[in-house]
Amino acid sequence: MADKPHYHHHRDRLRERFENGGANALPDYELLELYLFNSIPRQDVKPIAKRLIERFGSFAAAIAAPKDQLLEVKGVGPKTALDLKIITAAATRLGQQTVMEKPVLSSWTALMSYCRSAMQFEAKEQFRVLFLDKKNRLIKDEVLGRGTVDRAPVYPREVIKRALDLHSTAIILAHNHPSGDPTPSQSDIDMTQKIIDAGKTIGVVVHDHIIIGRNDIVSFKTLGIM
């Protein structure tokens, strides 16, 4: 019987390290490599994992990268790119379900983690609205605007109309800055005030507006600008 390829023994050792120490026992490229074992079963995937980390900077950034950019990395084909996007979708769904139908003001950290995982590495700006019921439980999370690298069109009337449709009495606004800098622009501030004013007319409260950058999150409430 032919000997196993050299990388099979490496795979066994890496799985054992993960089983004994969890994700914290592995650097980013090895955690990515561990996942790629299943996506590319008959090839040494360490070079691919290292190229992904070199290109995108981290495990999180690699799996969140746009599919077309993943395909530019040597060794990554359509199946592997899709497999990596499935990880992102699964992580986002898991984060969403940890906060859905729970009082968000008492689970703020979990909510911020969810928003960050959903939007941190988006290449284009998107505007999300988190709709809450009268007990401040999250009942719906929707993207109401998608745009360019520096602007996502959103209309206060549509935000408030959607709140009425969902019988929501409070909302949290969230959008990302693909540039990485979460500092609010004047247009961000002006748009937020328009939504606040529109909400007041029908009793919908805007609890906060958060901006997700590459490494930080900014809260309008914390900044004292709303």
Give a structural overview.
With 226 residues, the chain is of the alpha+beta class. Helix content is 50%, strand content 15%. The chain has ten helices and five strands. The longest helix is centred in the middle third of the chain and has 22 residues, at 78-99. 29% of the residues are buried. The model has no long low-confidence stretch (mean pLDDT 88).
Question: What's this entry about, in short?
Answer:
The protein is of the alpha+beta class and 226 residues long. The chain has 10 helices and 5 strands; from the N terminus they run H-H-H-H-H-H-H-E-E-H-E-H-E-E-H.
Summarize the helices and strands and which ones pair or pack.
Layout: H1 6-21, H2 28-39, H3 46-56, H4 59-64, H5 67-70, H6 78-99, H7 108-119, E1 126-132, E2 138-146, H8 156-165, E3 170-176, H9 186-200, E4 205-212, E5 217-219, H10 220-223
Parallel strand pairs: 3-4
Antiparallel strand pairs: 1-2, 1-3, 4-5
Largest sheet: 5 strands, mixed
What average pLDDT do the residues reach?
A: 88
End-to-end gap: 71 Å
Number of helices: 10
Number of strands: 5
For CATH, the homologous superfamily of the largest domain is named as Cytidine Deaminase, domain 2
CATH architecture of the largest domain: 3-Layer(aba) Sandwich
Strand line-up in the sheet with most strands: 2-1-3-4-5
Portion in strands? 15-25%
Fill in the CATH topology of the largest domain.
Answer: Cytidine Deaminase, domain 2
Which regions contain 5 or more consecutive residues with pLDDT less than 50? none
**How are helices and strands ordered from N to C?**
HHHHHHHEEHEHEEH
Task: Indicate the percent of residues in helices.
Answer: 40-55%
Number of domains: 2
**What is the CATH C level class of the largest domain, in words?**
Alpha Beta
Shape: elongated
**Gyration radius from CA atoms, angstroms:** 21 Å
Helix vs. strand class: alpha+beta
